[in-house]
Sequence to fold (582 residues):
Amino acid sequence: MSIVHVKINGIPVEVEEGTSVLNAAKKAGVRIPTLCYHEDLKPFGSCGLCIVKQEGSAKIIRACAAPVNEGLSVITNDPELFAVRKTILELMLSTHPSSCLTCIRNGECELQDLAAEFGIREQPFEVRISEQPKDLSTASLVLEPAKCIKCGRCVQVCQDLQGVFALEFIGRGDGTCMAPAAMLKLNDSPCVKCGQCAAHCPVGAIYERDETDLFRAAVADPDKQVVVQIAPSIRVGLSESFGLPAGTVTTKKIYSALRKVGAVAVHDTNFSADLTIMEEGSELVHRLTKGGALPQLTSCCPAWIDYVEKYYPDLLDHVSSAKSPMMMQGAITKTFYAQKAGIDPSKIFSVAIMPCTAKKFEIIRDDNMKASGYPDVDLVLTTRELARLIKSSGIDFLKLEEEEADSPIGEYSGAGTIFGATGGVMEAAVRTAYHVVTGKEMANVEVEAVRGLQEIKKGTVDFDGTPVRVAVVHGLSHVKELMDEIRVAKAEGKQAPYEFIEVMACRGGCIAGGGQPYGATDALRKERSNGLYTDDKQSGVRCSHQNPSIIKLYEDFLTAPLSEKAHHLLHTTYQEVPVYKA
Fold:
């Protein structure tokens, strides 16, 4: 691509042809304010804050959507541009509640930040707040239309990034809102509760259902024993909430913090990620050697499971019956752990710290989530909720002493850690499946081909002469390509050219889940992923089948992968779900 020469406020800069004015300005060290723009999304130009002047012309350019050309010279700030931007913000604020102190985004709101930067102290326009009520219909997300600034990010995320189409623009002018078709409740729409709308919303119009008070109530209840598990990606996500660089691993401080907020035991979902590999990997080998629908599709991600039940119910026999690591950990907590610890399982309050808002729905999706005889997981808190819980408890997170997880279901391998990044489940499965098929250990356990942010990764893994064709996909909008390929092959009586496919609903995988700290970009996703891969590399055990605690669990309790007890506790079933509920 050719290089063009442009000027930003008189600063010469060279950029590739087609680069936006906004990104050219960034290269020149100039910041242009935006609200509707996000790196993950196609520039929309709806808010108008990024307007700049083209020198030698009366033309006003929206910097986020306008490409540069040779010789372009723009002014990004002068008294007139400042006044226009301030007026735009004042108009937005005239339709936005001034309840910042009680808003979940207080201190993390892009509109609030810009209002402060532009010194807005009065409201010169008539206040017109939407009277649409909150939508509390899902267990995962809350829609608060009164706070919507009509930037359109949530619609773009839902339609373009996720391909779900649960949200759309409805109405015109002042009456425009972002809502499900026909103004349905979110729970009656195609929504898969992934939370990417909440992660990308610049204000508090869509957010996770905050349940930190339920945690506090459980801790205060003398009849409850609070036992907590943390997902793989939490160890690199939480750090940003305390000012640490993206990708900083804080696992042992998190264990310490959870004990300080009242947990009687702290376990690690990495343990059950290893357990998932044993079950899911054994299932794959069974399908390969004894028959079954191929390719096998992973089942760790609840938003993906919701999606496939709605959009591809004819392919549910391809989905692994293995539960997610969170649900496996919950079932083992209230059976094996309860026995070992001598705790009545009815008194265990099982809490999962997850990067994902869909996990809040997963724990109540059906009776398979009560395999222990009780709700296997009682409560899910997102990374953002955990950060608020720690801060409100007066804990100085950065000064905490590091502690270890509780045994026997806290020990994990490096393979369990990388579950948090796209390609991680595949890599972990390959490490163990290779051993199961060949009886040998991989000389190099790092499967570079499945790493990175390419939307669909395809390849063949050589199991000592046995080729296994694999694919990895992240971001639900890209799943359609592979699912349609499987559907067509099946209709023709053939097998799609894969044996195993990993699917994650969110771009980058769980490291950028809907409940992680705000502001995820590809650069940040890479840093978070690098933190997980570094943690894996430093692990003494790097394969799930080598985890001593997993070996002991099978010896003392489960007998073997795919055993009758394992099937009862660790596996589930699926069924078609209507895209729209009547």
